[in-house]
């Protein structure tokens, strides 16, 4: 280990920075965020450093470096493009046993600045010891994406409760188990939802009434299929779950991301195939949560767009089960983007309508006259079975038979297929498309050939002017 990681308390401690340009500004910003008293030596100050000086956040000590300036200094940073000056500062700091950092010169550093993930009071630092700073930065970016922004508040509240926890739970093992449950349970979820009062009550419940605790349900949208389109919050939820109830539309690559020891239960529904009744799914959600388990209900697309998410939450609310929702990328937004079809376009479509082709029995209620109007996009979910009826109704109510359409099968996935044609060919194309499939009707569908980017055109079927564009490369 070339460097010992140490978190230094710099509050009100004097730090000398030699240099006043852009690079110095980055270091000064970090020092100020840590509460240091910053003294600057520089011939001139850049815009940002000058602003700090004008607002009295830093002290402009002098225009040239003198060894005596190191008196009573806690640590030193040199950030100039003058290598002779940097060497002089380094030598003087070493002689006075001051910690010194020469920016971009690891050989002349007794301390280094790591890449920082700031979730104060929780701070994560990543360093390559100056060997590969870009690699350290890339790793920091990945960690930034994985660590919720609410972690700092979680740590702050936990710190306020440490005394009570230590007083109530006498052994180290008991306390460790308690905090593990709290940090992966509903308390952390409530903080993430900015329900701080409820989070405090949950922490109190976990500490003093652990035997009475109830589980909770997180309704997660898995997106249209490509695992790269799962949201970060959704990923965090499925990696913390005890049980995951998932639909048939959730792909295997997304299920692979679920925590290894979580229980997976398929409650999928597919036309013409065995499926779990909605009432049974509702019962399972309530029953598993009442057992104290952390349950995730994982749905394809977005759970509130033709996903029955609202129905399931009503059941949970009636049973007094705590829940939260993680939205997902709905199929209409995701698969059309991967097919190069914008849902709206200033010249072609001023509105978009999401429609389900699988309504509750006896509740069609579609206004076909309105849907048949031009310069709007219709995105139809679960519409392949009723494609013939949709085609006939739209033409009957005035939509031109030559209106461009696309049927996008298995959108966003490696085997995505986009079949394009006109409204009079909708039924025929829908029969050819792999499922799940989305129907897109409107002038924007014609842009597919120009804007397609996901995969390559590998074949064409000349008959009836129909084209087939399988996407065979997963770029996500």
UniProtKB/TrEMBL annotation:
Give the span(s) annotated as Precorrin-2 dehydrogenase / sirohydrochlorin ferrochelatase: 1-203
- Stated EC number for the protein is 2.1.1.107, 1.3.1.76, 4.99.1.4
Give the residues the record marks as binding S-adenosyl-L-methionine.
224, 300-302, 305, 330-331, 382, 411
Does the keyword section mention S-adenosyl-L-methionine? yes
Q: Which pathway does the UniProt entry assign to this protein? A: Porphyrin-containing compound metabolism; siroheme biosynthesis; precorrin-2 from uroporphyrinogen III: step 1/1; Porphyrin-containing compound metabolism; siroheme biosynthesis; siroheme from sirohydrochlorin: step 1/1; Cofactor biosynthesis; adenosylcobalamin biosynthesis; precorrin-2 from uroporphyrinogen III: step 1/1; Cofactor biosynthesis; adenosylcobalamin biosynthesis; sirohydrochlorin from precorrin-2: step 1/1
UniProt family annotation: Belongs to the precorrin methyltransferase family. In the N-terminal section; belongs to the precorrin-2 dehydrogenase / sirohydrochlorin ferrochelatase family.
* Top-rank taxon: Bacteria
List the catalytic activities from the record.
uroporphyrinogen III + 2 S-adenosyl-L-methionine = precorrin-2 + 2 S-adenosyl-L-homocysteine + H(+); siroheme + 2 H(+) = sirohydrochlorin + Fe(2+); precorrin-2 + NAD(+) = sirohydrochlorin + NADH + 2 H(+)
User: Could you tell me what this protein does?
Assistant: Then it catalyzes the NAD-dependent ring dehydrogenation of precorrin-2 to yield sirohydrochlorin. Finally, it catalyzes the ferrochelation of sirohydrochlorin to yield siroheme.
Q: Where is this region: Uroporphyrinogen-III C-methyltransferase?
A: 215-476
Species source reads Pragia fontium
Tell me the residues on which Phosphoserine occurs.
128
What residue stretches are annotated with the Siroheme synthase central domain?
Answer: 120-145
Q: Where is the Tetrapyrrole methylase domain?
A: 217-426
Q: Which residues form the signal peptide?
A: none
Q: Which UniProt keywords apply?
A: Cobalamin biosynthesis, Lyase, Methyltransferase, Multifunctional enzyme, NAD, Oxidoreductase, Phosphoprotein, Porphyrin biosynthesis, S-adenosyl-L-methionine, Transferase
Name the chain's protein. Siroheme synthase
Q: Name one Pfam family in it.
A: TP_methylase
């Amino acid at each position: 280990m070339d460097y010992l990681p140490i978190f230094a308390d710099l509050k009100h401690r004097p730090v000398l920075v030699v240099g006043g340009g852009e690079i110095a500004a980055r270091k000064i910003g970090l020092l100020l965020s840590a509460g240091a008293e910053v003294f600057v030596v520089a011939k001139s100050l850049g815009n940002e450093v000058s602003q700090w000086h004008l607002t009295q956040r830093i002290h402009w000590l002098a225009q040239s470096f003198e060894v005596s300036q190191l008196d009573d200094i806690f640590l030193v940073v040199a950030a100039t493009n003058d290598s002779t000056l940097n060497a002089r500062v380094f030598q003087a700091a070493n002689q006075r046993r001051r910690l010194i950092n020469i920016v971009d010169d690891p050989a002349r550093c007794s301390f280094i600045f790591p890449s920082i993930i700031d979730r104060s009071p929780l701070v994560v630092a990543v360093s390559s010891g100056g060997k590969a700073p870009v690699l350290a930065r890339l790793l920091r970016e990945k960690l930034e994406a994985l660590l919720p922004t609410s972690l700092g508040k979680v740590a702050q509240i936990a710190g306020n409760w440490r005394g009570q926890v230590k007083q109530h739970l006498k052994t180290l093992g008991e306390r460790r188990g308690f905090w593990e449950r709290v940090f992966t349970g509903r308390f952390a979820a409530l903080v993430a939802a900015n329900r701080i009062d409820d989070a405090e009550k949950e922490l109190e419940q976990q500490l003093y009434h652990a035997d009475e605790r109830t589980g909770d349900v997180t309704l997660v949208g898995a997106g249209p299929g490509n695992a790269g389109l799962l949201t970060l919050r959704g990923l965090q939820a499925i990696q913390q779950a005890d049980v995951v109830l998932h639909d048939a539309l959730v792909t295997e690559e997304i299920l692979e991301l679920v925590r290894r020891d979580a229980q997976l239960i398929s409650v999928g529904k597919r036309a013409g195939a065995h499926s779990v009744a909605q009432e049974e799914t509702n019962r399972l959600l309530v029953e598993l949560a009442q057992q104290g388990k952390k349950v995730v209900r994982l749905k394809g697309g977005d759970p509130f767009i033709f996903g029955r998410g609202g129905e399931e939450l009503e059941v949970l609310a009636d049973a007094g089960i705590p829940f939260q929702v993680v939205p997902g990328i709905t199929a209409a937004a995701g698969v059309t983007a991967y097919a190069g079809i914008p849902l709206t376009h200033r010249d072609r479509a001023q509105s978009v309508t999401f429609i389900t082709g699988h309504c509750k029995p006896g509740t069609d209620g579609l206004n076909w006259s309105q849907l048949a109007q031009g310069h709007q996009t219709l995105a139809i979910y679960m519409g392949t079975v009723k494609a013939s009826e949709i085609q006939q109704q739209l033409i009957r109510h005035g939509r031109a038979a030559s209106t461009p359409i696309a049927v996008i099968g298995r959108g966003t996935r490696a085997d995505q297929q986009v079949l394009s044609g006109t409204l009079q060919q909708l039924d025929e194309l829908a029969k050819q498309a792999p499922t799940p499939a989305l129907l897109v009707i409107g002038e924007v569908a014609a842009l597919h050939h120009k804007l397609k980017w996901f995969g390559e055109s590998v074949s064409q079927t000349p008959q009836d002017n129909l084209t087939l564009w399988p996407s065979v490369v997963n770029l996500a």
